[in-house]
From TrEMBL:
<keyword id="KW-0285">Flavoprotein</keyword>
<dbReference type="InterPro" id="IPR000415">
    <property type="entry name" value="Nitroreductase-like"/>
</dbReference>
<keyword id="KW-0288">FMN</keyword>
<dbReference type="GO" id="GO:0016491">
    <property type="term" value="F:oxidoreductase activity"/>
</dbReference>
<feature type="domain" description="Nitroreductase">
    <location>
        <begin position="16"/>
        <end position="203"/>
    </location>
</feature>
<protein>
    <submittedName>
        <fullName>Nitroreductase</fullName>
    </submittedName>
</protein>
<dbReference type="InterPro" id="IPR029479">
    <property type="entry name" value="Nitroreductase"/>
</dbReference>
<comment type="similarity">
    <text>Belongs to the nitroreductase family.</text>
</comment>
<keyword id="KW-0560">Oxidoreductase</keyword>
<dbReference type="Pfam" id="PF00881">
    <property type="entry name" value="Nitroreductase"/>
</dbReference>
Length: 228
């Protein structure tokens, strides 16, 4: 493990090799590495350079408390979404894409389609950061307009793209926003701020089967409209 970025990784490789890692090693990530990564990611563009993003880095006892409290809220059925992520009715082709990634992942885990208990346990692994020692939470003040959401998304993309240069991998986790009040309370995030997403950060377990999952992408020819 190294704190220094491996600058030999090409931008093309960094983007095309990005994966959502769902099993991490317990190895500690140094504070210096986390801050160096975030310093580099903060080169993300933002409207008029206002940089509306805020990041909460969660480790150690606070991480353990957060995992325990949110998992307990899940068991009690206390879901309260921070904001709507999907439309109320998910239509095609999006529904099929969503189902495919779910079924593919459950197959890797060895969970049958009718195994609801197994599915629930798989869900709960989200709230352990999939074993990653570092959790990141991206927030901003609620009164920002939609443009600021784009800015924050570009910061998140930079974090995920740059992480391999530090030997690290990530998993973006909007699932934490389904239990926003608990995250606000444990991390002392004021209600005037919105939690955009969580993210697991750490060293990937190269032996884990779930980390070999590669999701499909629609080719550009299917989502591009050419104007001549």
């Amino acid at each position: 493990m190294t704190d220094k970025p491996a600058r030999s990784i090409s931008a093309l490789d960094a983007v095309t090799s990005r994966r959502s890692v769902r099993r991490f090693l317990p190895d500690t990530v140094s504070d210096r590495t986390v801050y160096d990564l975030l310093d580099a990611a903060a080169r993300a563009p933002s409207g008029q350079n206002m940089q509306p993003w805020l990041v909460h880095v969660v480790t150690g006892e606070t991480r353990a408390t957060l995992c325990r409290e949110v998992s307990a809220a899940v068991e009690r059925g206390e879901r309260t979404d921070e904001y709507p992520y999907f439309p109320q009715q998910i239509r095609e082709p999006y529904l099929s894409r969503r189902r495919k990634i779910g079924f593919d992942l459950f197959e890797i885990y060895g969970i049958g389609r009718e195994d609801m208990a197994g599915r629930r346990q798989a869900l709960l692994r989200n709230f352990e950061f999939f074993g990653a020692p570092v959790g990141l939470f991206f927030t901003m003040e609620r009164d920002w307009g939609m443009g600021a959401w784009i800015d924050c998304a570009m910061l998140m993309t930079n974090v995920m793209t740059l992480a391999p240069a530090f030997g690290l991998r990530t998993c973006p986790q909007q699932a934490w926003c389904e239990y926003g009040p608990v995250v606000h309370r444990v991390l002392d995030i004021p209600d005037s701020h919105v939690i955009i997403s969580g993210m697991a950060l750490g060293y990937a377990d190269a032996q884990a089967r779930e980390n070999r999952l590669t999701t499909d992408r629609v080719p550009a020819a299917q989502f591009v409209t050419r104007h001549i």
